[in-house]
User: What shape does this take?
Amino acid sequence: MPGDALTQVFAALADPVRRDMVARLAVADATVNELAEPYAMTVQAVSKHVKVLQTAGLVSRSRDAQRRPVHLEAEVLDLMTTWIERYRLLAEERFRRLDDVLADLPDDVEPLPPA
Amino acid sequence: MPGDALTQVFAALADPVRRDMVARLAVADATVNELAEPYAMTVQAVSKHVKVLQTAGLVSRSRDAQRRPVHLEAEVLDLMTTWIERYRLLAEERFRRLDDVLADLPDDVEPLPPA
DNA sequence: GAGGTATTCAACCGATCGGTTGAATATATC
DNA sequence: GATATATTCAACCGATCGGTTGAATACCTC
Assistant: This one.
């Protein structure tokens, strides 16, 4: 198994082209051809990028005649924010506790006398 | 230029080993040797992982004799949450607006009669 | 059914990635 | 100075990645 959900989502957004696609899809759904328009690359390459986003659960596809519009599924982003916030808060908590320890030091163990 | 800040941070966290390191570093600083202990890989490989995290700005190093403890710099995580939240909120806003449009539909255009 | 449009599949290619081994560097200890 | 510990550097290797070209599929229109 190469990738759990979190790995796939982070990896999907580790590419500036795919992040740009997500940004544009946040405004409106788009087809592969529409998505491809601003980039200097083939539609096949864009199709691959979309597939990466889809496998990560970040977008879904529907059908409209020949077109297969891409739709942003924003819920998956919560996966990441949850993970990130957990460790950011932990680190901040730890930092806060260090402050407390320093504040509680008795006066005669000043770690560094003023130069 | 291969990578802007955002790309490097996302890429750094797109690896389960590095995410585990971040999780452990959120609890306490650690040396490369300490970090390497639980993994079935050489310390050189771990050293490389640490360098990736450092280049992304996620950790900093200090010196303590031969040891070079790794310290988590949690502020960079805000970069990601800011980016993510921006587009999650945009997508949700768009979804909410769609709901409004449906709610404002006149009664005689019921999209789907009850089965 | 012929032709156009939208999309994907398949094979290929160079670059990067995650790992290895082996040698080098830095610091402390005897 | 010799030895042990902690870390990094350098070269290599197979796998994955981001892109290409070319052919295939699916759907609409005439």
User: Anything to note?
Assistant: The two ends of chain B are 58 Å apart (CA to CA). Residues 2, 15, 17, 41-42, 44-45, 48-49, 52, 65-67 of chain B lie near DNA strand C (CB under 10 Å from a C1').
